[in-house]
Amino acid sequence: MNFQLSDAQAMIQQTARDFSKKQVQPKAAELDESGRFPHEIVKEMAGLGFLGMMVPEQWGGAGLDTVSYVLAMEEISRGCASTGVIMSVNNSLVCDPLMKFGNDDQKKRFLTPLAQGDLLGCFCLSEPGTGSDAASQTTTAKKSDKGYVLNGTKNWITNGKEANVAIVFAMTDKAAGHKGIAAFVVDTKSAGFSVAKLEKKLGIKASSTAQIHLDNVEVPAANMLGGEKDGFKVAMTTLDGGRIGIASQALGIARAALEDAKDYAKERKTFGTPVSEKQAIQFMFADIATELEAARLLTLRAAMMKDAGAKFSREAAMAKLYASEMAMRSTVKALQIFGGYGYVTDYPAERHMRDAKITEIYEGTSEIQRIVIAQSLLKEGLSL
Length: 384
Ligand code: CAA
Hints:
- The chain has eleven helices and ten strands.
- It is of the alpha+beta class.
- The strands form three sheets. A four-stranded mixed β-sheet has the order 1-4-5-8.
- It starts with 6 loop residues before the first helix and ends with a helix.
- The site of acetoacetyl-coenzyme A (CAA) has 25 residues, from β3, α7 and α11.
């Protein structure tokens, strides 16, 4: 496998790095403190083509590959993890299924404005009682004269407050289990679509996490994504790609923790010398850097397999599992390097640790990733 970046990929990485350093990172502490959605950054990212990175130019996107997306996601998340997830959801969980399962009419109406940043998207799968067990959801879609009528409650919806478009999963046939789920593209201004609650969170505070109520929401039949029985497949294939995005977010958070701790350790003196010269601290840096590289390789491999059109569910799960747990371990170590200063908000170490935790939970918990990996291993064997 060749991990040499092409000129185009290196250019995207550099563009994202410069933008993140100048426009995103300086605002991260304020965004965390205020919980303000970074509308101005999202607008600038749209201008750079970062909201529809893998969408073909024909549909208004940047026409780039998943590797480029991963590189940009790491840079944006290095600056601000909240901004990273806003970007990830629009690209991976909304544009991707529209690209893969949408017809030309749906692409024209939804994909193009989403890719250009004229609309923002969210992904409504989880419910108050069903997160990991996505097939057991209870939201219903009943056929009507005009199309379908949706009823139910969706939970943990990133971008839920700001989104103009929602991909909503609902049961068309409860008795059929996962084969009775359909996916719909829903205009969030539809009557009966409402934000019932905004969650107060440990981290990624500048991204909204909403509970959505669907109260007799009428959706035209032309807004069904795929067929009446295809919803679970749409959700699962979409999440495969989403997990690569979250793995990249975790890389960005861990890198932020490492770089900030490195700067601090070179300045901070104890017993007459900078703490960076103490072997105990150097070992922590060595562990964080090594694990970060390993996680990046897993993430790039999953991205390359997606670009090659290969099946990549297992590789995406491995990348997300390892990168998110690496980010948690690394941010805890980085905070320790700051000592007492790591525990207070004067430095960003505590924010990185709070932001890292969610990567082990959303788009499939670490436990779900282990299930996906183990089941694939038992069915298909090792990939050598
Ligand atoms: N791609 C395509 N099809 C898939 C698939 C995949 N990756 N995984 C499963 N399927 C198919 C199977 O082939 C099977 O199809 P058939 O019946 O036709 O054979 C069908 O789906 C059912 O498969 P399983 O029996 O394996 O399904 P399951 O009910 O046991 O669930 C699971 C499997 C992996 C646990 C799945 O439920 C899962 O991924 N759960 C986690 C959900 C999740 O990640 N939620 C996060 C929500 S998004 C979010 O976090 C919010 C946000 O805004 C960021």
